[in-house]
Design goal:
Keywords: ATP-binding, Hydrolase, Nucleotide-binding. It comes from Rhizobium brockwellii. This is Allophanate hydrolase subunit 1. This protein has about 240 residues and is an alpha+beta fold. The protein is about 25% helix and about 30% strand. It is built from 6 helices and 13 strands. The protein has a 7-stranded mixed sheet with strand order 5-13-6-7-10-9-12. Strands 1-2-4-3 form a 4-stranded antiparallel sheet, with helices on one face. α4 crosses α5. It starts with a helix and ends with a helix.
Length: about 240
């Protein structure tokens, strides 16, 4: 993502039609908490006062996809409805604080030493920095339960790997740039694996709440020992 000064300054967002049933509202092009606050605020306003034909809103880092029923609304009426809600006064919502356990033992954190060397830090310094991050859920995407967290401290931020690695275990704690996530499936990844968590992020059997997080939730990581990790996995 590149810097978008107009969106960052609070100007009117950009509207893009998506197919015949949605409008993409773009507030910027960067991973920026101020921009994401505008996304979350519009999402809340649409939930508080849905317009005729509103189906759902899907928030992302710097944009939100607003879906509508084409038999009731169209792109133009949806844009007008969105514009009316941009300045709406809504009660400030504070996301929940969620805790994620993490073990940094070397066999569970194969990239920890590499990140440490690239950052000019010791592995323990990387762990301390990761635990101190100010994390919040900005979006879901890529795979079920993949909650993208912003807030990785600059001291340990690294670009993605040149090529993804296959077969990375579910529960792996991954970082790339300012982003962090806990994988929920065995998947390939080009992100750096610095630990593993036994915390259940995805509950595929639950119809009411399949994901642990909501967009806007704050997340903190808590270090656990290998014995605690093994016990959690057996529970």
């Amino acid at each position: 993502m590149s810097q978008d000064s107009s969106a960052s300054s609070g100007s009117v967002p950009n509207y893009r039609p998506v197919g015949g049933h949605a409008v993409l509202v773009e507030f910027g092009t960067t991973i920026d908490r101020r921009i994401h606050d505008r996304v979350v605020k519009l999402d809340a306003a649409l939930k508080a006062a849905p317009f005729p034909g509103f189906v759902e809103a899907v928030p992302a880092y710097a944009s939100i996809l607003v879906c509508f029923d084409p038999l009731v609304a169209d792109h133009r009426t949806t844009e007008v409805a969105i514009a009316e809600r941009l300045g709406a006064e809504i009660p400030e919502t504070i996301g929940a604080m969620r805790e994620v356990e993490i073990c940094y033992d070397p066999d569970l954190a194969p990239d920890l030493a590499v990140v440490a060397e690239a950052s000019g830090l010791s592995p323990e310094d990387v762990i301390s920095a990761h635990l101190s991050g100010d994390y919040s859920v900005f979006m879901y995407g890529f795979a079920p339960g993949y909650a993208y967290l912003a807030g990785v401290p600059k001291a340990i931020q690294q670009p993605r790997k040149p090529a993804p690695i296959r077969g990375i275990a579910a529960g792996s704690v991954l970082i790339a740039g300012p982003q962090c996530l806990v994988s929920t499936l065995t998947m390939p990844t080009g992100w750096w694996i610095i630990g593993r968590s036994p915390t259940k992020i995805l509950d595929a059997a639950s119809n009411d709440r399949p994901f642990l997080f909501d967009v806007g939730d704050a997340v903190r990581f808590r270090r656990i020992s290998r014995a605690e990790f093994d016990a959690r996995c057996l529970a």
